[in-house]
Design a protein that fits this description.
Number of strands: 12
Strand content: 15-25%
Shape: globular
Helix content: 40-55%
Largest sheet: 5 strands, parallel
Number of helices: 12
Radius of gyration: 35 Å
Order of helices and strands: HHHHEHEHEHEHEHEEEEHEHHEE
Strand order of the largest sheet: 2-1-3-4-5
Distance between the termini: 62 Å
CATH superfamily of the largest domain: Response regulator
Length: 317
């Protein structure tokens, strides 16, 4: 507490004058907003206790005022501290390539309402340019474009980018799905589609596109796959797999949630000359299910996409 002249307005004024000089303002109500080192606080104390003490005779007050004077230069140089909000997370950029204005508007509204930043293109050529310039994190691509077929657009993008691509198309024939997936599509959604299903496919595809740590261990139910050690366990016990079975399982784990076509699996495991040997694939998938599944007739880990290929269940990495 600061001493001051009891009943001496001159002593009170002198103390306030000193405080205001330190704060760099005039002795007025501005003292409360003074930028000095604790000036407003000291002014309050002088006013509160001026009736009881004598400021000019107090060694404590003199020491405080001296400290305030020494801190004057520091106060002038130091900016006021402001509370700042953390920077918002950047929105995921989605590129929509579709020639129908209604579809583009619907997708823009749906995606922006769920935190995406949307750019769009009405032609295949414009879509390729936008993909190169804007560097989207995911692409929604229609197959029936006016200038280029969607599969051709996909092939051109795949020449230089691995950005995730989801096909949105009214085409529901197996041939069209296989062609798009073989060309590098990550998923295929048939129009018309529900917004909930589309958003779930987007989240799954984006999650798969994130790099996995080198020593990741994947788990699903009672099954555990250690890719680094090349070990597969069921309920804690190691399962013996043939090299071909392990190669198939590895592909399904790495691309979990994504449809892998017969052609892709055959090419990866047996080579490009075996793309027509689908019976090889069916036999080895059946053996793999017998070792992994509780009931091979009702699989939960390796799902069949009729006429197209197989989809591995989502794993916890």
């Amino acid at each position: 507490m600061l001493p001051c002249h009891a009943g001496d307005s001159g002593g009170q004024h002198a103390a306030l004058q000193t405080l205001c000089e330190v704060g760099g303002t005039r002795p007025s109500r501005q003292c409360l907003e003074c930028g000095g080192f604790g000036t407003a606080f000291m002014r309050k104390k002088v006013l509160e206790f001026s009736w009881q003490y004598r400021a000019r005779k107090s060694a404590v007050a003199a020491a405080i005022f001296a400290a305030l004077r020494r801190g004057k230069a520091l106060c002038r140089r130091s900016p006021k501290i402001r509370m700042t909000q953390p920077a918002p997370k950047p929105a995921t950029i989605a590129l929509v390539i579709d020639d129908e204005p209604q579809i583009r508007r619907l997708l823009r509204v749906t995606l922006e309402a769920n935190g995406y930043s949307v750019i769009d293109a009405a032609t295949g050529q414009d879509g390729i340019v936008q993909a190169a310039q804007a560097r989207p994190e995911i692409i929604l691509l229609d197959l029936g474009l006016p200038d280029l077929d969607g599969v051709e657009v996909l092939k051109r993008i795949r020449e230089w980018s691995r950005v995730p691509v989801i096909i949105l198309s009214v085409r529901d024939r197996e041939h069209d799905k296989i062609a798009a997936l073989d060309a590098g599509a990550d998923d295929f959604v048939t129009k018309p589609f529900g917004s909930g299903e589309l958003l779930a496919r987007l989240r799954t595809t984006l999650r798969r596109s994130q790099p996995q740590p080198a020593g990741a261990i994947f788990r699903a139910g009672k099954i555990e796959v250690d890719l680094a050690a090349r070990i597969v366990r069921k309920s804690g016990a190691e399962i013996k797999l043939t090299p071909t079975e392990y190669a198939l399982l590895r592909l399904l784990v790495v691309h979990a949630g994504k449809v892998i076509t017969h052609r892709q699996l055959l090419t990866e495991v047996w080579g490009p000359n075996a793309v027509e040997q689908t019976h090889y694939l069916r036999v080895h998938i059946a053996h793999l299910r017998e070792k992994l599944e509780e009931n091979a007739a009702q699989p939960k880990f390796i799902l069949t996409e009729p006429g197209v290929g197989y989809r591995g269940v989502e794993w916890e990495g």
